[in-house]
From TrEMBL:
TM stretches of this protein: none
InterPro entries, alphabetized: HAD-like_sf (IPR036412), HAD-SF_hydro_IIB (IPR006379), HAD_sf (IPR023214)
Molecular-function GO terms, alphabetical: magnesium ion binding; phosphatase activity
NCBIfam families, per database record: HAD-SF-IIB
Organism expressing this protein natively: Parafannyhessea umbonata
Protein name: HAD family phosphatase
Pfam families the record matches: Hydrolase_3 (PF08282)
PROSITE patterns, per the entry: COF_2
Amino acid sequence: MPARVGAGGSGRASAEASHAPVSIVFADMDDTFLARDKTVPAGNLALLDRMGEKGVPFVPCTGRVWSAVARRVLGHAATRYVVASDGAVVMDVRDAGNPRRLHLSALGRERALALYERMRELPVTFDAFWDGKIYVSRRRFELMRGFDIPPYDRDMYLRYRTPMDMTTPQLLESLPNVERLTIFTGTDDVRARAIEAVAADSTLHYTYSSARNLEVMDKGTSKGAAVRWLCDYLGIPRTQSVGFGDSPNDLTMLAAVGDGVAMANAYPEAKAAATHVAPWTCDESAVAHYLGPLL
């Protein structure tokens, strides 16, 4: 069972004293580092300032494309790298004018096209992630307006997608590559059929961060695999890493770091996978409350 970290007391002090040095921090964005309304809580912004002063790298570890990381986080001096697209991409963002892709684990166009053929008749979105943008055919983009999705999530979807006036096969053929896919479904029945279509290709797997989406990628791609790659690349022992998450797409990241911390608002699966469960929610600057005493 994961330990549940209290807000204070001798148990907390003992945990701080025995914790490994923190040399790098990974954090999911939505419902973890960001509040549920997609804003950055003041406590977490102050934490970034402190990490920048101490030279501890902060790494957003997100299902989003790297360019969709909240501007106040992406542009902060503490944010040196981004694990994006559920681990399909690792970016070096230290030079804002010249971000560099360090690592790519792509699903690719061929398998994306084959999966689309298995889903062609389903009323779902089919969003292709590539090079900092998310592309979707306009017809499938408009489906999102009718799905029963929390307003903040729908607004984010509409803001960061690039609708294209072409069919999905034409869109996929026009891209140099595909990092991963997101598929939003409107009903449980359609979701189950979409999962069957993904499972038909054993080289793919899916995860999710809401009850209505599937995040589809190469079988070897995950946030955890990208965390391991970046720690090795930087020469940082993973025992000196801390990671924060809330959703099933964070499970591999929570397992890969030295100290995996789930939010109080996390899915049960994330709490079960974590080393510790914080007593604070994402709306209460949980990352700052937990990490601050360890820096």
